[in-house]
Amino acid sequence: MEKSDVIIIGAGPAGSSCARQLHQHGLKVSLLDKSQFPRNKVCAGWVTPEVMQSLDIDLDDYASSRVLQPIRSFRTSRIGSRDVYTQYDDVVSYGIRRSEFDHYLLERSGVECHMNEPVKSIRRDNNIWIINDHFSAPLLIGAGGHFCPVARHLGAHVGASEAPVTAQEVEFEMTEQQSKSCPVDAETPELFFTPDLKGYGWVFRKGNFLNIGLGRQDRNKLSMHVDNFINELKRAGRVPENIPGKLNGHAYLLYNDAPRRVYDDGVLLIGDSAGLAYQQSGEGIRPAIESALLAAKTIIDAKGNYSPAHLAGYETALRQRFGDKMLPQKNHSPSRLKCLLAGILLRSKWFARHIVINRWFLHQQQAALTDLKHT
Ligand SMILES: Cc1cc2nc3c(=O)[nH]c(=O)nc-3n(C[C@H](O)[C@H](O)[C@H](O)COP(=O)(O)OP(=O)(O)OC[C@H]3O[C@@H](n4cnc5c(N)ncnc54)[C@H](O)[C@@H]3O)c2cc1C
Questions:
Q1: 15 lines ligand 1 (CB under 6 A)
Q2: Whether the CB of 35 sits within 6 Å of ligand 1
Q3: How far is the CA of 167 from the centre of ligand 1 (A)?
Q4: β-bridge pairing 6-9 and 139-142
Q5: pLDDT above 70: residue 88
């Protein structure tokens, strides 16, 4: 049996950030992931500067051998309509490749990593968690993304009563010819809202890589919506005719739609496992990292007592950071009037800058989560 203080399932941004924090405070962490890193993750790979700040990432060091695409402007529109160009004086976001970003975070976590280790069994004996009949610890953290086995263990009805965002994406390195003829400016991601306002698509160039995708708060006919979107992009000459590889899909929960219990006796969920992605943008990396830091603070403050009463502060901290949840809406379909109004608003330069980009996508109203004091 391999004993540690904490077992973390999932080595994505949430798992590795929490692991690093706990390791720095002297806890022995076992970090398990079913994949071998570097691995791909379905994602557009867009992070705000607050993510880099919270993680204390040295940008020069990061960019020395990885893609770090500065973003200084955006194009936003409703699919098929004229776009609005929003420009900034400075860098307001970055494009990263998840295979590189996640591997970087994992390597600098400093903890013992067990890759190629899918969770096959979870049991608890005398207040000690035992994973795969081999790893044991008094505390278990679920960071395995939307389909996290720890979330299931806590009773999450994955794929049943939950209403996740579903999305498809492809990222590929352009050939010299594709690169020359691609009109997408690397410093300007392009966002395209669907006419029914249930989602949006994007074209995002990171150096010589092109990332194209679409996500929706509606599982119906996703592939049809994605095909229509890509055909529209091709028709408008924004992306190459011959996109290599197939689109990959994934699902995850937005904060307000996530009914999951995030803690129990000796166990916590962080990141997508807890269902924390931002409601409007679907951005999940920042909430994954912030929840990891908040969980680590709760754990360090608990000083080895992981009873529900000692872990409850984590849920409170999430609420303080991400807000109270609104009552669940039965139907995500905006009315025709709202769609019409949104069409008008999306053409407004003021709305695009101050609401869509600054508030929904950059979260400029919220400073980076840094300097968490421990009691
Ligand atoms: C198409 C798409 C585009 C997106 N674009 C963006 C974006 O541009 N910016 C942004 O901020 N967010 C984006 N998101 C959301 C973002 O990808 C997630 O919110 C983020 O990856 C959550 O991080 P995490 O660490 O919680 O989980 P993950 O990154 O999913 O990591 C979970 C880890 O757990 C491991 N795991 C899973 N099951 C098991 C198991 N049974 N046993 C062991 N290990 C397991 C997996 O291998 C994985 O490494 C996007 C999502 C999608 C689907």
A1: yes
A2: yes
A3: 12
A4: parallel
A5: yes
What is the rounded CA–CA span in Å between residue 249 and residue 306?
A: 36
Pocket flag, ligand 1, residue 287 (CB < 6 Å): no
pLDDT at residue 81 above 90?
no
Q: Give, in order, the Cα–Cα distances in Å from 77 to each of 86, 117, 234, 357.
A: 11, 43, 16, 12
The first and second tokens of residue 334, run together, are: 């905006």
Rounded CA gap, 45 and 31, in Å?
23
Whether 204 shows a pLDDT value over 70: the answer reads: yes
Q: What does the pLDDT average to over 167-187? A: 94
Question: Each residue of 282-305: pLDDT tens digit?
Answer: 999 999 999 999 999 999 999 999
Domains defined along the chain, listed by start: 2-45+97-161+254-322 (3.50.50.60), 69-95+165-252+334-375 (3.30.9.10)
Mean local confidence (pLDDT), 321-339: 72
Q: How far is the CA of 12 from the centre of ligand 1 (A)?
A: 6
Per-residue pLDDT at 218: 86
Block residue for tokens 């984590």:
314
Torsion sign across C-alpha atoms 228, 229, 232, 234: negative
Distance 285 CA to ligand 1 centre (A): 8
Both structure tokens of 96: 């990263």
Quote the ligand 1 centre to 10 CA distance (angstroms): 9
Ligand 1: does its nearest atom lie under 6 Å from the Cβ of 142?
Answer: no
Query: Where is pLDDT greater, at 259 or 170?
Result: 170
> How far does residue 176's CA lie from ligand 1's centre (Å)?
31
